[in-house]
Amino acid sequence: MKHLNHIIVLLICSIVIACASIGSPDGGPYDETPPRMVSSTPTERATKNDVKKVVLEFDEFIKLENASEKVIISPPQLEQPEIKVAGKKIQIELQDSLKANTTYTIDFADAIVDNNEGNPMGNFAFTFSTGEKIDTLEVSGTVLNAEDLEPVKGILVGLYTEHEDTAFTKLPMERIARTNGSGRFVIKGVAADTEYRVYALKDVNQNFMFDQKSEMIAYQRQLITPSFKPDIRMDTIWADSVHYDSIVPVRYTHFFPDDIVLRAFTEEMTDRYMVKNERPEPNIFNLFFSSKSDTLPKLRGLNFNEEDAFVIQANERKDTLRYWIKDSTLIKMDTLNIELAYYATDTLGNLAVQTDTLYLSSKQSLKKILQERQKKHEEWQKEQDKKKKKGEPYDSIPPVAPLDMTINSSNINPDSWVTFKFSQPLSSVDTAAVHLFHKEDTLWTEVPHQFELVPHKQFDYRLIGEWRYGEEYEIRLDSAMFQGIYGAVTNAQKAQVKIPKEEDYCALYLKVKGVEGPAFVQLLNGDKPVKQSDVQADGNTEFYYLKPGKYYLRLIKDTNGDGKWTTGKYDEDLQAEEVFYYPSAITLKERFDISQDWDINATPIEKQKPQEIVKQKPDKEKSVKSRNKERERKLKQ
User: Fold this and answer.
1) Which of 343, 474, 497 lies closest to 416 in space, CA to CA?
2) CB of 160 closer than 8 Å to CB of 196
3) Domain that holds residue 201
């Protein structure tokens, strides 16, 4: 009996050890063999197929990763197919009717992996045809965001044999693929001797056509004709994870075109409607619209007199409006009833006057605000009473809260200015109460300056001085220089300005080639614009007063001359304005100016943006080999 118990114990231990040894990091290398398809119904590359149910069987247990994102079926299926995984089998049941004389491609990309180690099967695609032949060609390329040349991941790219512009807006795509993390796509099962137009679409409603302005799109005018040729590439044979054995030529079929570049953009929203309205505080209400306007809404009070009741703060597009209520009586009202007339898009797509009635109640209770103020006053009064009892100096009049003001006087260059920002609109500004002093030796001397509103900013001001290298300045503001609409005024203040020495700066001179028409160059710190300069007719552009550091360059062909990047519009066959990047960083050092030539067409557009500032990184390669390499490295230590 004891002997039998020993045998049972040994059997149990061996089972546990066997189970634990699967993929054991210290018991040997991980399995690197990917799954292999051993049979299918219908057979691979079958013709005259009329069966909508596809079953694929593999030589080991498998699983599908991110099937909804990675598995693409061409022609696209309007009704979502059913995809099931069980053991060693994948079952795909198409719900749409099969089209006659059509090649069907089920592209799994790298979604199929083995169940244990996650070895990917690679770029696997299953093909069959309802006709007598299989279309086997491929076309490939890259989709980039037109504004910043970022790779666009997950966008559909499709082909049409119909060449009219309306096909993209009326018909679903015929052959499709989806981009990976590098923005790359490969459309398979493409017919030879056929001319296609190619499009990209961020398909919001999954109907494979462009019918919503919010969908990102890309298109190109030229037709493509798929082709191929036998070709040779050089492959590396590795002796181990570190050393290569040899480089050998490998024959393969090279499909063309393989260098399609699509610049994707989202059209500017032109349909205008009110997005929302709110009254976050008793003295403020906001109106938000979906797109810009040339005019402000007309407002009529239904339970108050609206004449001279507000100060309106509008952004440059006039799609975000803030109304500051000036009248204290209105501020105390729980609800403002307003009749608002504004331009909105009607059912025919035209702008027409629309009239709405708004009932604006404050999210913050005025009663609660007054109670908090009273509480603060009582606390202040108690503090003064304590001081009075102790015989200490005390105040008999409560202090008046000053008008909040922020002065930005740091990092001022000879070509910049000091800005003044306020927490509320101003009712008056005494420009004579601002003084600029220059330090000469130990004495301060008042010097001329310019004081004005910041362009496109209703309530921000700036002070412009004749700044000199390495000099110190002081801004002195008299009390009550600025007064807000609620009576608060600013206190007397001072602000220091220190201009760096000339040798602390550097300059960049560019000679740009390949530009015709208006264009400008942006100097970037990372992906943020620092300065902007127009390209002159001779291709020259300059940047002065730069701090040492690493910078990047972006050029925008300013077709409409408005000084900013402009998106495209499909109905008008208007592409987004073209963007180019200098393909590497430029490092500027103290006391050194740099002159740099830049041919914007010298580097392929998909390779221009420096990898250090690309946000969309390539998909991580699925491989067990990297784990085995790490294992070998640790064993050698």
Assistant:
1) 497
2) yes
3) 135-266
Give residue-wise pLDDT tens across range 369-399. 666 767 776 676 788 778 778 888 877 766 6
Q: Quick one: pLDDT band at residue 527, thresholds 50, 70, 90?
A: confident
Provide the β-strand partners of residue 178. Answer: 156
Residues 103 and 126 grouped into a single domain: yes
242 contacts: CB under 8 Å, gap ≥ 6: 629, 632
What residue type is assigned to position 578 of the chain? E
Residues 6+ apart with CB under 8 A from 137: 189, 190, 191, 192, 226, 227, 228, 255
Distance (Å, whole) CA 168 – CA 158: 10
Looking at the structure, tell me whether residues 251 and 287 fall in a common domain: no
- Single-letter amino acid, residue 146: A
| Chosen domain end from 500, 527, 542 | 500
3-state secondary structure of 576: coil
Q: Do 489 and 549 belong together in one domain? A: no
Q: Same structural domain for residues 115 and 65?
A: yes
Which 3 state secondary structure label does DSSP give 571?
helix
Q: What's the pTM value of the predicted model, to 2 decimals? A: 0.84
Beta bridge partners of 420: 407, 461
| Res. 514: pLDDT tops 90 | yes
Task: Report which of 346, 338, 328, 352 is spatially closest to residue 278, judged by C-alpha positions.
Answer: 338
**Does residue 620 fall inside a structural domain?**
no
Q: Is 632 left (phi over 0), alpha (psi -120 to 50) or beta?
A: alpha
What is the CB neighbour count within 10 angstroms for residue 209?
19
Confidence of residue 10 (pLDDT cuts 50, 70, 90): very low
Identify whether residues 158 and 253 lie together within a single domain: yes
Nearest to 271 by CA among 362, 331, 154, 354: 354
Q: Is the peptide bond before 455 cis (omega within 30 degrees of 0)?
A: no
**Is there a single domain that holds both residue 570 and residue 514?**
yes
- Statement to judge: residues 100 and 179 lie in one domain: no
- Out of 118, 133, 148, a domain closes at 133
Tokens coding 262: 């699509």
Least confident of 40-49, 72-81, 556-565, 625-634: 625-634
Cα separations (Å) of 455 from 62, 263, 359, 389, 414? 63, 33, 34, 54, 19
Distances (CA, A) of 366 to 305, 333, 370, 487: 20, 9, 6, 19
Question: Is pLDDT at 637 greater than 70 in this prediction?
Answer: no
Which among 420, 431, 409 has a CA at the least distance from the CA of 480? Answer: 431
Please report, for the domain that includes residue 140, its CATH number: 2.60.40.10
Same domain, 148 and 117: no
Rounded Cα distance, 36 and 58, in Å: 5
Structurally, the chain folds into a number of domains equal to 5
> To which residue do tokens 């006039």 refer?
318
